Amino acid sequence: MKNKRLVSIIIALIVFAVFGAGSYLFGDEILDSKNINSNLQTENTIVVNYLDVGQGDSEFIQLPNGKCMLIDASTSNYGTAIANRITALGYTKIDYLVATHPHADHIGGMKQIVESFDIGEIYMPMVSTNTQTYENLLQAISDKGLSIKTAKAGTVVLDEGELRMEMLAPVNSAYNGLNNYSAVIKIKYGDTVFLFMGDAEMLSESEIMSTYSKEDLKADVLKVGHHGSNTASMPEFINAVSPKYAVIEVGEGNSYNHPHAEALEALDNVGAKVYRTDIKGNISVVSDKTDLKVYKEKG
Question: Residue 34: pLDDT band by 50, 70, 90 thresholds?
Answer without folding.
Answer: low
